[in-house]
Fold:
Amino acid sequence: MGTDYTAHRLAVIGAGVMGTNISTLALGHGVPVTLVDLDEAVLAQARSTIRQKLRHAQLMGALPDRPQGELTTSTSMADIADATSVVEAVVEIAETKYKVLAEASSVVRPGTTLISNTSCISIDEMAAHVERPEELVGTHFMNPSYMIKMVEVIRGSATSDAVLASVTELLAVLGRESLVINDSTGFVINRLLHPLINTAAMLVQEGVASVEVVDGLLEGCLGHSTGPLRTGDLIGLDNLVDSLNVLYERRGDESCKPCDLLLEKVREGHHGRKTGRGFYDYGKVAS
Amino acid sequence: MTADQTVSPLTADHIQLALGQFLEERVKTTVAMQQDLFKSGLVSSMFAMELVVHLEDEYGIAIVGPDLKLDSFRTIEAMTELVLRLSAVKADNDG
Structure:
């Protein structure tokens, strides 16, 4: 595929926070995107969200001087057939990912890079459900993907050298840097980050410190640019709980068992920035 | 904005006052006219986008192209200049 942005055609499956983030990143770097979701109402919202995110990216000077790519949305998986790379960005629930990846791998041509954007679920576990396991690779984009340069790339035990090279090239076209790790549930970032956020929430739950004080300490003493609870709000507390459950169930790590305060916020629909309220109140949601 | 304010000519004083109140409400502190909102750490990059949407909704302007950059929103003074300029363009086009 190489580093010519006009040679790439990206399909993104799942029009939630990360699907719209990755779509924005690609469109802003001149790469056309076919965005697929089950629900036309979700796609309509996604088109609006992507317009706002493209404006945010431009505002922040995060886009190169290139014409933007064209966005196509669809409820049919058949429309990903012509893509050069496919990114699965559905919810962090293993069975959903298995199903989506199995269907995607049966639709695309051999040689298409199949990417799971996952925050925790092992690539090898998902590779068992695709037609060509050597073509599956993992990425873990941060949020917002168009602002954060680094991407965690996960090589499964079956991932081929060619596919690893291909995903690295795609990320370079999108102006991202990549660091490659070997497969492990939770990878590097979330094996470190998720227990930290869960423990931060537990400290608030126990009345040890307020939300602002916990974040303030991590920011002021350890130099974190965003405290763990504000980071949780940005990730989405519902997605965070899904990922913590994956880590807890698969690794048995007690520090990853979602604490009561997190579960309560999810139950009440306070999912963080995307709903306007999580650990913090964001007022009017702009994007 | 009241009906009276809508028909009044837009002045720098009006915009500065309204923006000062809006920011004070959101960041819970008084913001000086030339204070750099981003450098001082008062607001995040996500909040910058809220400022864009707020100005567009409040003044009926479209902030696009080269105006859509962080420098346009750094200070109350810069935002006031932007609103006055884009409002004048809009009035010319409407007129």
In short: The mean pLDDT of chain A is 95. Residues 191-275 of chain A form a domain with the N-(1-d-carboxylethyl)-l-norvaline Dehydrogenase; domain 2 fold (CATH 1.10.1040.10). The interface with chain B takes residues 52, 55-56, 58-61, 147, 273, 283-284, 286-287 of chain A (CB under 8 Å). Strands of chain A lie at 10-13, 33-36, 71-74, 85-88, 113-117, 136-140, 150-155, 177-182.
